[in-house]
């Protein structure tokens, strides 16, 4: 247990220095630990050397920053100690398999690493309650828009929701919600190099709207209560930073489904939201 505790502390040491170049042998000597034996134990428990852990965690945090889009690529590169933007782009592509500019498109398929911890978390107290079910294909009717993959962000989805709400179209859609899934459905998928976004309802009625059909398959349905835009991001962050590491099946990220159950005001702080994560 003492060894595990020290490894936990050393992981914190690395996390505090993700932006630095660490001389691990010197650092361990200063901590009074024989480097070779410790690195062997660390690698056995963590699955990689301290250096590999630091590099993978650094690239993971960079990927999240690129995905969130709050800072320019050059600023991110400088923040993490890369002086040359071209060198950074080459290194990022070598380690992540894509260019920095493709991160938003492929974030869900990247091999990212959340901080490793050895804390025991009770399995009966998940951050978001979930259940795994098989769901047959069903029909959605609603409004469809197409976006360039280079320009698309999740903000576009919230903007479209707000526009439909302002124009009274959410209430109109709910009048056709005769299908088995109750609520406003947000359905994203890539079609011919564009992002197709449909906002609609499950319906078996003839309706003056666009229509599409979902894929059949196994889904884990996550539930939460909060403001729609923020909560959906939080649930996806939980899925891809934590939950997916515990799942022994591949995730299907070719499309996404979210459901706003009630109320339908996206600015309301206590809306009931579902995120449906599909499996391959």
TrEMBL record:
Statement: the UniProt record of this protein carries the keyword DNA-binding: yes
Keywords for the protein's UniProt record, in alphabetical order: DNA-binding, Transcription, Transcription regulation
UniProt domain HTH araC/xylS-type: residue ranges: 8-106
Highest taxon listed in the record's lineage: Bacteria
GO terms assigned for molecular function: DNA-binding transcription factor activity; sequence-specific DNA binding
Database matches in Pfam families: Cass2, HTH_18
Keyword GTP-binding: no
PANTHER family xref list: RIGHT ORIGIN-BINDING PROTEIN (PTHR47504:SF5)
Protein's UniProt name: AraC family transcriptional regulator
Lineage, highest ranks first: Bacteria, Bacillati, Bacillota, Bacilli, Bacillales
